[in-house]
Amino acid sequence: MKQIALLAVALLMGTTCLAQTQNLPKPNLQRQTLTVMEMFQQRKSVREYSAKDLSEQDLSDLLWAAIGVNRANGNLTAPTAMNRQEILLYVFSRQGVCLYNSKAHSLTQVAEGDHRDILAGFQSFAKEAPVNLLMVGDFDRFGSKDAHAQSMVSMDAGYVSQNIDLFCAAAGLATVPRATMDIAAIKNLLKLNENQVPLLNNPVGYPKE
Ligand SMILES: Cc1cc2nc3c(=O)[nH]c(=O)nc-3n(C[C@H](O)[C@H](O)[C@H](O)COP(=O)(O)O)c2cc1C
User: Fold this and answer.
1) CATH code given to domain 15-205
2) What's the CA gap between 184 and 181, in Å, rounded?
3) Is pLDDT of 142 > 90?
4) Around Cβ 195, how many Cβ atoms within 10 Å?
5) Per-residue pLDDT, 8
6) Ligand 1 atom nearest to CA at 47
7) What is the pLDDT of residue 15?
8) Which of 84, 49, 70 is nearest to 176 (CA)?
């Protein structure tokens, strides 16, 4: 009975980040999209979004494209310097905040409730997007926080953000890479340590009708 009630709530609220750990549908590697040249033609920053939630499949494909495992050796769709795989990808939605686990292709809830406003910062358009993907550089995982490390980790976050941009261009979704966000509030909410640094975010949604 309790399970039926939970299922009903899940169906009512949408599935993004509801359960403690939620397996995503397998990424659709046969997804029909634009050609690579058409995709580059479509790549642009978009700052208006439909409020409609992303479908589970679109979210799954988006996260896999961003930083999913694409080879048997565990390497990722985004390159990272020395393969340190130090970029943490958080998903902010109406339902809560989740951390994407590339290896399991799953989401684990790390905070309840709608916190898209702290990612939006002073750019209120960003909180209209149904999801906002936050890239956090984990310098503990990278193994250093010196000037060279800061440059490498920032570049690695840029690759993840560009993967998001290009997937959105190909799939007809709207996004913009952003450095704007309330870093202090994010660190507080996600209980980040001093070596885990919010670097970029991408609000993502269907285009506004
Ligand atoms: C590292 C980086 C940070 C950015 N930060 C923001 C931002 O905080 N807010 C915003 O609206 N756009 C931001 N942008 C998007 C740029 O403004 C946008 O890419 C630029 O105006 C060119 O437009 P286009 O992407 O449509 O070609 C950022 C882009 C990059 C690459």
Assistant:
1) 3.40.109.10
2) 9
3) yes
4) 15
5) 42
6) 11
7) 46
8) 49
User: 156, 175, 152, 155: which is closest to 165 by C-alpha?
Assistant: 175
For the stretch 13-44, pLDDT in tens is 444 555 589 999 999 999 999 999 999 999 99
Q: Which of 158, 139, 131, 173 is nearest to 44 (CA)?
A: 173
Q: How far is the CA of 177 from the centre of ligand 1 (A)?
A: 5
Mean pLDDT to the nearest integer, 37-64? 98
- Alpha-carbon distance 39 to 167, whole Å? 8
Question: Which residues does ligand 1 sit against, CB inside 6 Å?
Answer: 44-45, 47, 123, 176-180
Name the token pair of 16.
């993004």
For residues 169 and 42, is the Cβ–Cβ distance under 8 A?
Answer: yes
User: pLDDT for 86-128, tens place per residue?
Assistant: 999 999 999 999 999 999 999 999 999 999 999 999 999 999 9
- Token pair, residue 116, equals 């898209």
Average pLDDT in the 172-192 region? Answer: 98
Task: Give the C-alpha separation, 189 to 66, whole Å.
Answer: 23
What is the 3-class SS of 77-130, one letter each residue?
Answer: CCCCHHHCCCEEEEEEECCEEEEEECCCCEEEEEEECCCHHHHHCCCHHHHHCC
Token couple for 45: 């920053």
Q: Whose CA is nearest to atom 4 of ligand 1?
A: 178
Alpha carbon nearest to ligand 1 atom 9, residue:
178
